[in-house]
Write a structure and sequence with these properties.
nine-stranded mixed beta sheet; two-stranded antiparallel sheet; binds 3-hydroxy-5-(hydroxymethyl)-2-methylisonicotinaldehyde; UDP-N-acetylmuramoyl-L-alanine:D-glutamate ligase; alpha/beta
């Protein structure tokens, strides 16, 4: 394998099985050097824990980036997840442009909403800023809630293909070159992912598990970035990430009361065969 290097920018939730504690092991397990830029340090994630600490690292970003720039450090992919502030989103626009190798991909997981609701730290001004990042990315990887907020489309739990195709079109109209839309369910007991690249839509359906877990969006996006960077197509990467996320959710279901994240660690060794299968 070539010397591949991904930069991922998202928070460190010290406890919570999300963001960097997910992206770092997963992308590394794909055989790819994983460089990180922490957007903030929190004691836990914000979905369900109370009284979490939050240290914003926005002001550290320009000097970290300048150092890398002076060293001539470039990446095969830049992948943003949960970002700590609107100012950070602004920084990401230049950072991605300046630090990608030629042909490198900029992947944005908006990571600000689920089940039709914004995460506690965010408001519509944040969504407006995120649109600017989506406008310059190569691939946006939202769930349906995030996609609807970004596009100003009503979030629905029951819908048809026409509604979803409208959401995908609206994401492309924001400027994203390709779309990977997760959590699209047309049939009871199943969910799936819609991809759109160069005008070609495809849908990968997989089982919908009864237990929903926090942090699965981060697992999904991390596997997607790892698979894509290792040479898979968008469609193949979307499928591999869906299959791995299902394994992690099934593993989580074996534990009672594991409410704050998905247990991807016991199944991480299976990622290799999904990538090579
Ligand atoms: O999984 C997304 C995520 C990442 N980081 C933090 C979060 C969340 C979702 O709530 O709170 C801090």
């Amino acid at each position: 394998m070539k010397d591949l290097k991904v930069l991922t920018i998202q928070d460190i939730s010290c406890v919570g099985q999300c963001s960097l504690t997910v992206a770092l092991p997963i992308i590394s397990a794909c055989g790819i050097e994983t460089c990180i830029l922490p957007s903030a340090v929190l004691s836990t994630h914000t979905a369900g824990f109370k009284n979490f600490t939050f240290r914003d690292l926005t002001d550290d970003i320009p000097s970290i980036f300048n150092h890398w720039n002076n060293e001539g450090i470039r990446f095969d992919a830049v992948y943003t997840g949960y970002l700590g502030s609107e100012k950070q989103i602004g920084y990401m626009i230049n950072l991605a442009k300046a630090s990608l190798k030629e042909g490198g991909k900029f992947i944005v997981d908006p990571a600000f909403a689920d089940n039709g609701k914004l995460y506690p730290a965010f408001d519509m001004a944040y969504v407006e800023s995120m649109k600017k990042l989506v406008a310059v990315c190569d691939i946006v990887v939202p769930n349906l809630s995030e996609a609807c907020f970004l596009c100003g489309i009503e979030y629905k739990t029951e819908y048809d293909e026409e509604y979803i195709n409208g959401v995908v079109k609206a994401l492309l109209a924001l400027g994203a070159k390709a779309v990977v839309l997760t959590g699209v369910s047309y049939e009871k007991g199943y969910t799936g992912v819609v991809t759109c690249e160069n005008g070609k839509l495809s849908y990968y359906k997989h089982e919908l598990l009864p237990n929903s877990c926090h942090g699965t969006g981060d697992i999904y996006a991390s596997v997607f970035v790892g698979a894509l960077t290792s040479g898979k197509t968008i469609e193949e990467s979307a499928k591999i990430s869906a299959d791995f996320t299902v394994l992690a959710i099934k593993e989580t279901a074996k534990s009672e009361n594991h409410w704050y994240g998905a247990k991807f660690e016991p199944v991480l060794y299976k990622l290799n065969s999904l990538l090579n299968g």
